Amino acid sequence: MERQGILSSDCSPGERFISDYKALKDTVEAIRALGGRVVLTSGSFDLAHIGHARYLREARLRGDFLIVGVESDERVRARKGDNRPIVPEAERVESLTHLRYVDVVTIKGAKDQKWKLIKCVRPDVLVISERTGYSNEKVVALGEFCGEVVNLESQAETSTSARLREMQIEVLGPAIDIMRTAIHSFQDGLEKLEKMNGG
């Protein structure tokens, strides 16, 4: 029998994205009733790269059902500045629903209370990235709402911020060279004018 909805082999973005936390909680309870082990992780997942895919695979291997909390555009801007995210939240959410390791995606809003999603899901496993820099005290505190907290190391040398820096260098490098050439030409022109005027 073909599975339907979030348990189907299709990406089903409309069904895999659950914005309402009450509906999300009901989904978690249904998965647990089937004997499933629920894993939760979150992040901005802006400008997707191989590290994201590897990270989500590692997270999914720790259970039967992976929920991914995606930071809203407003939340990312508050944390990373006005020029981020590069990719809007609707696109980031839909992209994640196409990854085979991801079962459900939800949004983490800028005004959400601390650990709102974690308290809603109460995952069997909470996967956090070492890049978030959670202190031991925070990890212990999270244990109140999670069966297990896994601090996962980076899965690639790159990051979205590093990628953006590389792109800026690639774009700005030639422009800087052109500006240097123009400045040298301008200085040469000034020197010639000074010599002509007996300077």
Notes on the protein architecture:
The chain is an alpha/beta fold. The protein is 48% helix and 14% strand. It has helices spanning 13-16, 21-33, 50-60, 73-80, 89-97, 116-121, 136-142, 160-196, and strands at residues 38-43, 65-71, 104-108, 125-129, 148-152. The protein has a five-stranded parallel beta sheet with strand order 3-2-1-4-5. Helix 7 (136-142) links the parallel strand 4 (125-129) and strand 5 (148-152). The N and C termini lie far apart (92 Å). The mean pLDDT is 84.
List keywords for this structure.
5-stranded parallel β-sheet, 199 residues, elongated, 8 helices, alpha/beta
Strand-helix topology:
Elements: H1 13-16, H2 21-33, E1 38-43, H3 50-60, E2 65-71, H4 73-80, H5 89-97, E3 104-108, H6 116-121, E4 125-129, H7 136-142, E5 148-152, H8 160-196
Parallel strand pairs: 1-2, 1-4, 2-3, 4-5
- What structural class do the secondary elements suggest? alpha/beta
What gyration radius follows from the Cα positions, in whole Å?
24 Å
Q: How many strand elements? A: 5
Residue-averaged pLDDT: 84
Work out the helicity level: 40-55%
What is the percentage of strand-forming residues? Answer: 5-15%
Brief account:
The chain has 199 residues and is of the alpha/beta class.
